[in-house]
Design a protein that fits this description.
Layout lengths: L1 H8 L4 H6 L2 H34 L3 H15 L2 E9 L7 E7 L3 H7 L7 H8 L4 E3 L21 E8 L2 E11 L7 H44 L8 H13 L3 E6 L7 E6 L5 H5 L7 H8 L3 E3 L23 E8 L2 E9 L5 H5 L4 H59 L4 H27 L9 H16 L4 E5 L2 H4 L5 H17 L6 E7 L2 E8 L12 H11 L3 E7 L3 E9 L1
Parallel strand pairs: 11-12
Antiparallel strand pairs: 1-2, 1-5, 3-4, 4-5, 6-7, 6-10, 8-9, 9-10, 12-13, 13-15, 14-15
Helix pairs in contact: 3-4, 3-7, 4-7, 7-8, 7-12, 8-12, 12-13, 14-16, 16-17
InterPro entries: GAF, GAF-like_dom_sf, HATPase_C_sf, HATPase_dom, His_kinase_dom, Sensor_HK_TwoCompSys, Sig_transdc_His_kin_sub3_dim/P
Protein name: GAF domain-containing protein
Organism: Nocardioides agariphilus
Length: about 575
């Protein structure tokens, strides 16, 4: 009997039990039986908690379940789980709590971020049990309206060899503090919680990957839809921002670091023209173009290689960002950038750069395929119109011309002047008809004057000829009609009009040459043999030309000498 008593109670209590009466011994045995039953019940609750946590695949649901179960297992009035941030300071970015009413939470204000006693557990992640929180040297105290808390138990929550966060329990119900048994139970719960959290995070990561895959398929469908009617790059930026939960996204286009220009922005209402005037040759986007590798930065405001457009109206201060190349089979089309506000840095940490990189690559390929398909469709239209024009020229015009010749010959042999006049009028009408058909054949060479840059340039040169009293020499090189982008055409025509006007009013030129070429770049060159540009001229018109070039990532070169003429070269890369 003594040996059994020593086994259950230890040697210190054996003398007391030897002297106790039967009722006392019976009560002691019953108390120990109840303790064993309570311990078994807590273990059963712990096992149930592990099973229920594992069944929840949402991270928020798992965290809320953990604090609720922990509070029940050790009879704590309050429980909380602090999730560590991914930054260097390792403070709390999420604080999930249990036990306080919404009114109490509202009166307390901001939730803890990881200082004081909570910070001690972050810096030294080992279990802590305290009788009185306020008595600990690291305690900061509590803010106003905070409920009283005395006893404390804190344990780290680990995922493999990394600390995910810490579990905090306060105010043990009933007399006494948290015991070693409580600590053991919570440590076991924290170990199981680490596995459940890891499973939930893997599930969320799989869902994010599925979202990226769905977005990739959707963007491919939209870009290749001929009736979609939306700008392809804007669609890419909008969809990437939604999937990544980014605050701002933008696309810069260009085949090399020197030709990059802002094309579209999503998430903020900003001055896109002002954005397009920014030099990007030394930006992070240019680094991505040179290396063709994604670039991630924790803070755009602190990165020396980042371009800061914050002074532009509507552009916010941004924190972390990811830049990914939009690569296609033939090269690089541009860069997709995703950025978050500093307070949303956790969203940045949840994005695997490989996913937006794959999305951008597929979007670039889709845009290239859609462009090629559009070119094929335009080529088919040109070929069809060329066939129609050839038939009109070879068949209709020739037959009309033959009829006209026959009528003209017959008119000479008719004595009646009225009949001869009518035949002569018929021949003139046929000549006019032939001219109309020839003009139609010329018009068939384009998709319409509104889209035919070559026709517009020719019209401007013809208009200038009426003012100059001589016609400038006009030459075209390369597929001008098909390669000059629609967004570049208005600026190109404005530059040509300004240059011809200057040559007419100021240069006193007797000869002007205009060359428009399209290849790797759109190049407009206007040369005259006039008096040249004075040394102290105010660059109003030239400044506008230069601004129009910079807007598209291009340049304006001016060469001029007194009495030797002026050459303007306006170049925009494709």
């Amino acid at each position: 009997m003594d040996e059994k008593l020593e086994e259950y109670g230890g040697s210190a209590r054996v003398p007391a039990l030897r002297e106790a009466d039967f009722d006392t011994l019976l009560r002691e045995v019953l108390n120990r039986i109840h303790s064993a039953i309570d311990e078994q019940e807590r273990l059963r609750l712990l096992l149930d908690a592990v099973v229920t946590m594992a069944a929840d695949l949402s991270l928020d649901g798992v965290l809320a379940r953990i604090v609720t179960v922990a509070s029940s297992l050790v009879d704590a009035q309050y429980a909380a789980l602090g999730v560590l941030d991914v930054g260097h300071d390792r403070r709390l970015r999420t604080f999930v709590h249990h036990g306080m009413t919404p009114v109490q939470v509202s009166e307390i204000g901001d939730l803890p971020t990881g200082h004081g006693l909570l910070g001690l557990l972050i810096d030294d992640p080992r279990p802590i049990r305290l009788h009185e929180i306020a008595a600990h040297p690291a305690s900061y105290g509590f803010p106003a309206n905070h409920p009283p808390m005395n006893s404390f138990l804190g344990v780290p929550v680990r995922i493999r060899d990394r600390v995910f966060g810490n579990l905090y329990l306060t105010e043990k119900r009933g007399p006494g503090d948290f015991t070693t048994e409580d600590e053991s139970i919570v440590v076991a719960l924290a170990a199981a919680a680490g596995v459940a959290i890891e499973n939930a995070r893997l599930y969320e990561e799989a869902e994010r990957r599925q979202l990226w895959l769905s977005a990739t398929a959707e963007i491919t469908s939209l870009i290749n839809d001929p009736v979609a009617g939306s700008d392809a790059l804007q669609t890419v930026a909008d969809r990437a921002r939604e999937v990544a939960r980014a605050d701002v996204t933008w696309v810069v286009a260009g085949a090399d670091a020197e030709s990059l220009v802002f094309r579209v922005v999503s998430g903020v209402d900003t001055d896109i023209d002002a954005m397009r005037a920014l030099p990007l040759d030394r930006s992070l986007a240019s680094t991505v173009v040179r290396t063709r590798e994604p670039v991630s930065v924790p803070d755009l405001g602190q990165d020396p290689g980042a371009l800061n457009p914050a002074p532009i109206l509507g552009w916010p201060q941004l924190g972390p960002a990811i830049f990914v190349p939009m690569s296609s089979g033939s090269g690089i089309e541009g860069v997709l950038a995703l950025a978050w506000f500093p307070e949303h840095a956790s969203r940045f940490a949840a994005v695997d750069p490989a996913m937006p990189a794959s999305f951008a690559e597929q979007a670039a390929l889709s845009i290239q395929v859609a462009t090629a398909r559009g070119d094929q469709q335009r080529l088919a239209v040109f070929e069809d119109r060329e066939r129609i024009g050839r038939d009109l020229h070879d068949l209709v015009i020739q037959r009309l011309f033959a009829v006209g010749l026959s009528l003209q010959g017959a008119g000479r042999r008719i004595a009646d002047p009225d009949v001869g006049a009518r035949l002569s009028q018929a021949v003139d009408d046929l000549d006019d008809t032939i001219k109309d058909i020839r003009r139609t054949i010329f018009a068939l060479g384009s998709l319409g004057d509104s889209e035919d840059i070559q026709a517009e340039v020719t019209r401007l040169v013809d208009r200038a000829a009426a003012t100059m009293k001589f016609r400038p020499v006009l030459r075209f090189e390369g597929p001008v009609r098909s390669l000059v982008p629609a967004e570049v055409a208005p600026d190109l025509l404005a530059v040509l009009g300004e240059a011809l006007s200057n040559a007419s009013r100021h240069a006193e030129a007797t000869s002007v040459e205009v060359l428009l070429s399209a290849g790797d770049a759109v190049s407009l060159t206007i040369s005259d043999n006039g008096s040249g540009i004075p040394g102290r001229v105010v660059e109003s018109g030239l400044g506008n030309m230069r601004e129009r070039a910079h807007k598209h990532g291009g340049r304006l070169d001016v060469t001029s000498a007194a009495d030797e003429g002026t050459t303007l070269s306006w170049v925009v890369p494709l």
